[in-house]
Amino acid sequence: MSPKTLKGKSHLLEFYGIECDHCVDMEPLMDQLHKELGVPVRRFEVWYSEDNLRLLQKLDKGGACGGVPFFYNKKTRGWICGATTYANLRNWALGKPHQRFLPPPKDEPSQGSRIMNFFENLQKQAMERIQQRTEQAEKQKQQAVGAKGGKADAQRGDKARPKATSAQSKK
């Protein structure tokens, strides 16, 4: 099937769970697929909808996948279990040969992972700045206390020093 014959038809189904990390990782690829091919992918949340779960179980014959994300092409009856590569997802959508189980490579972080890494790094930087500012404030506080102590000693001047006794002054 060419992308032109698919345009506007919705025969591609995605089954997902709201808190599913792998499903979140696939969202940018699904958006890219929709933009490139012009075919909407109908989404069915299965963790909180019994009707959607029953439909997933009907299409996932014998529970071969048994989880989400699960992608089903109604025209070809082709399916993919789990997160996958964009190339594999595109082949599935076009009715071309594809792998049912083909996880994305580990060295290519998903869009969701990159976003999480960004926020984790941002949080780390913020914590480092807070630590630096706390240390600077503590240092300034100690310097201020030290400066006050030095002024007090200077104001006391000779009064703080012991006076020479008459025996010492004769020497």
- Secondary structure tally, helices: 6
Largest sheet composition: 4 strands, mixed
Helix content range: 40-55%
What Rg, in angstroms, do the CA atoms define? 34 Å
* Strands ordered across the widest β-sheet: 2-1-3-4
Poorly predicted residue ranges: none
Ends apart, CA distance between termini:
114 Å
Order of SSEs, N→C? Answer: HEHEHEEHHH
Strand fraction: 5-15%
Shape: elongated
Helix and strand arrangement:
Elements: H1 3-6, E1 12-16, H2 21-37, E2 41-45, H3 50-59, E3 70-73, E4 79-81, H4 86-93, H5 111-156, H6 166-170
Parallel strand pairs: 1-2
Antiparallel strand pairs: 1-3, 3-4
Task: Describe the protein.
- The protein is an alpha+beta fold and 171 residues long.
- It has six helices and four strands; from the N terminus they run αβαβαββααα.
- It has helices at residues 3-6, 21-37, 50-59, 86-93, 111-156, 166-170, and strands spanning 12-16, 41-45, 70-73, 79-81.
- The protein has a four-stranded mixed beta sheet with strand order 2-1-3-4, sandwiched between helices.
- It is elongated and about 85 Å long.
- The protein starts with a helix and ends with a helix.
- The model has no long low-confidence stretch (mean pLDDT 82).
Quick summary:
The chain is α+β, with helices and mostly antiparallel strands and 171 residues long. It has 6 helices and 4 strands.
List keywords for this structure.
171 residues; alpha+beta; 6 helices; elongated
